[in-house]
């Protein structure tokens, strides 16, 4: 390695590779490498302005060759003559690249394997397939990384595909129990394996390696450091902390107004009502079908007079029948196909996707949505299918404005959200909140409520959502929610489903956003129209309002909604904390009790902020459960009984409530 100090950054060059390590925020490094003459200059998730780090760079000559180190506060990195990087926190090693290739191997194990730490494999005439390996740490636990549909909160031993898919969200920031956080600052399709033998990060196609890492004593400080360089969520408006009413789907403005008035009549306060998909003519028109929505402005005005905000669904898909398709095609505003036909989405039409990575495309879509929605008084947008969803996830055959899909596709949902956030901020100083089905690192700063996608109505899926929500929070996404009861419901009359719905609702009361939604079977409601387009032909699900599931369940949900409203001042304080330091609302026990060893091992309960320990019921016909209470005094909010922590208790869980304990 040929080392140099470039204005406080450690730069090393060897055999065509340039490696750069520089201070990037408190106790943090950004590490980049490329085989090209220059770095791209893309900062990706690292969008925030930071003070120049006061790094110390030392370059020496050792017996085996040149050696360098760089420090920034509590973090230090060393690089040996072969380019192997070792990281230290307070001079204690916590991470080292995996290198087994004779000279330069730091490990005392076999060195004749010819594995290298940064493996660039070139594509003919193109960029690189990149593999970066690190030594694995025994006893380490890994969290964060976004949302994966699995029951595992601790990701050690997991293999995660870094791809945006319906209900799978890649936010590549990992939090380690060893006191460091690691951001894979690369939107390429790839994979990470947190193996017992080594950790491996893969980018299927890229021009450079780019990651950021930080150290701290506890997860709270790691999140604070991370969101300092990637951004924090704005303040969430208090008038959206109650119930969001939604279903698949309200088909007409008459249906929407009928439900809104029924909420008033049934004493069910709702903060907003959501108008789902296919209220439009065809995909890509982004306009109400006037056959069923003859005067949407009058509808919006009436809802506003009732204190209800209005949310409308916008999809990124553009049907070839759309009035905008050929104009957008000529302007180069659509996703490009490297091969095959221009069909990338086939649900209810022959569609492709608009290219949200293209600033001109973002402005084009906003201009249409402003005229047809925002200027009518629509308050918020539901940016569905924001991965984007595709007929087949053939990332190797697609190209965006920013580059090949293999290199950039994971950033699409962030670009999609910016389309609305940035333009809505220009139009008004009112708080912006939009609902999305996907996100990437840094998405939190664009006012996204991210929900967990089209998951089935099963207790197994419910259990997965708890792991998903906890890890999304640790990946820096504090505004997170689910479809209460799950999305795909076969039969609303099934008593097992209704029990699931109640248990899910009780959980959702103690989550960031309380939102009723779902596609409720059986599908025996006739369509309004026999056309193959427009707002009337597509099916709708069964009723999904609180009173739709029988008097007994209605009473339970109304009582729980009252509890939610009583918690509003507390919930507001949690949103303020998220804006201040990046803390999630939904927290693992160890986030609040990092010194408690057992808190690092319990994942079927959680903290809602710093005061409430919530133990959801995620099994059918379960009416009591064991609850671990960390050290301290805890009060059951249902009966006021207090318990000394540091032990496991058995708590009652009748259908009317789940165990929730307040720290006193």
Query: What integer value in Å does the Rg equal?
Result: 26 Å
Q: How far is the N terminus from the C terminus?
A: 57 Å
Biggest sheet features: 8 strands, antiparallel
* Beta-strand fraction estimate: 25-35%
Per DSSP E runs of 2 or more residues, the count of β-strands stands at: 41
Number of helices: 12
Fraction of helical residues: 10-25%
On the 0-100 scale, what is the average pLDDT? 97
Q: What's the arrangement of strands in the largest beta sheet? A: 1-2-3-4-18-15-14-12
Which geometry do the CA atoms define? Answer: globular
Structural class by helix and strand composition: alpha+beta
Describe this structure in words.
- The protein starts with a strand and ends with a strand.
- Strand 20, helix 3 and strand 21 form a beta-alpha-beta unit.
- The strands form nine sheets. An eight-stranded antiparallel beta sheet has the order 1-2-3-4-18-15-14-12, covered by helices on one side. An eight-stranded parallel beta sheet has the order 30-29-28-25-21-20-19-32. A six-stranded antiparallel beta sheet has the order 34-35-36-41-38-39.
- By secondary structure, the protein is of the alpha+beta class.
- The relative contact order is 0.10.
């Amino acid at each position: 390695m040929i080392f140099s100090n470039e204005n406080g950054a450690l730069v090393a060059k060897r055999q065509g590779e340039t490696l750069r390590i520089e201070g990037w925020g408190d106790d943090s490094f950004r590490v980049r490498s490329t085989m090209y003459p220059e770095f791209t200059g893309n900062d990706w998730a690292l969008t925030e302005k930071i003070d120049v780090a006061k790094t110390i760079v030392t370059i020496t000559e050792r017996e085996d060759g040149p050696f360098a180190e760089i420090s920034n506060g509590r973090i230090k990195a060393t690089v040996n003559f072969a380019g192997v990087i070792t990281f230290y926190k307070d001079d204690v090693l916590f991470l080292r690249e995996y290198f087994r290739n004779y000279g330069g191997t730091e490990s005392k194990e076999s060195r004749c394997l010819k594995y290298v730490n940064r493996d660039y494999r070139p594509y003919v005439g193109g960029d690189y397939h990149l593999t970066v390996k690190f030594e694995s740490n025994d006893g380490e636990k890994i969290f964060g990384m976004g949302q994966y549909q699995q029951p595992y909160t601790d990701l050690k031993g997991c293999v995660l595909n870094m791809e945006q898919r319906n209900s799978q969200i890649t936010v590549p920031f990992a939090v380690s129990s060893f006191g460091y956080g690691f951001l894979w600052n690369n939107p390429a399709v790839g994979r990470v394996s947190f193996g017992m033998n080594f950790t491996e990060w893969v980018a299927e196609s890229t021009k450079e390696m780019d990651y950021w890492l930080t150290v701290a004593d506890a997860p709270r400080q790691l999140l604070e450091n991370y969101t300092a360089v990637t951004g924090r969520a704005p303040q969430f408006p208090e008038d959206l902390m109650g119930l969001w009413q939604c279903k698949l789907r309200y088909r007409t403005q008459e249906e929407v107004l009928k439900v809104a008035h029924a909420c008033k009549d049934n004493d069910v306060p709702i903060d907003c009502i959501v108008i789902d998909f296919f209220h439009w003519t065809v995909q890509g028109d982004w306009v109400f079908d006037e056959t069923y929505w003859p005067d949407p402005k009058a509808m919006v005005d009436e809802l506003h007079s009732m204190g209800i905000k209005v949310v409308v669904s916008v999809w990124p898909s553009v049907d070839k029948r759309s009035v905008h398709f050929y104009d957008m095609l000529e302007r180069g505003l659509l996703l490009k196909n490297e091969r095959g036909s221009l069909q990338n989405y086939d649900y209810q039409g022959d569609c492709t996707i608009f290219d949200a990575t293209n600033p001109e495309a973002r402005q084009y879509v906003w201009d249409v949505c402003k005229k047809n929605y925002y200027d009518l008084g629509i308050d918020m947008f539901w940016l569905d299918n924001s991965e984007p969803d595709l007929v087949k996830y053939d990332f190797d055959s697609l190209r965006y404005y920013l580059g090949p899909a293999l290199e950039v596709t994971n950033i699409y949902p962030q670009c999609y959200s910016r389309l609305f956030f940035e333009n809505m901020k220009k139009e008004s100083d009112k708080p912006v909140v939009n609902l999305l089905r996907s996100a990437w690192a840094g998405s939190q700063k664009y006012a996204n409520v991210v929900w967990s996608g089209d998951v089935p109505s099963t207790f197994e899926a419910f259990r997965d959502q708890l792991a998903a929500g906890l890890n999304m929070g640790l990946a820096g996404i504090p505004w997170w929610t689910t479809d209460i009861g799950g999305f795909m419901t076969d039969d609303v009359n099934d008593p097992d489903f209704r029990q699931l719905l109640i248990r899910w609702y009780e959980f959702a009361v103690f989550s960031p956003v309380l939102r009723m939604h779902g596609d409720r079977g059986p599908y025996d409601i006739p369509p309004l129209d026999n056309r193959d387009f427009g707002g009337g032909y597509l099916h709708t699900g069964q009723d999904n309002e609180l009173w739709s599931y029988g008097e007994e369940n209605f009473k339970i949900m109304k009582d729980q909604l009252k509890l939610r409203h009583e918690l509003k001042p507390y919930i507001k304080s949690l949103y303020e904390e998220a804006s201040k330091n990046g803390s999630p609302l939904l927290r693992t026990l160890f986030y609040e009790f990092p010194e408690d060893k057992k808190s690092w091992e319990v994942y079927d309960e959680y903290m809602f902020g710093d005061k409430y320990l919530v133990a959801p019921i995620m099994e059918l016909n379960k009416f009591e459960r064991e609850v671990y209470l960390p050290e301290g005094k805890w009060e059951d909010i249902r009966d006021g009984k207090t318990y000394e922590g540091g032990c496991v208790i058995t708590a009652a869980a009748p259908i009317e409530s789940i165990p929730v304990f307040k720290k006193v």
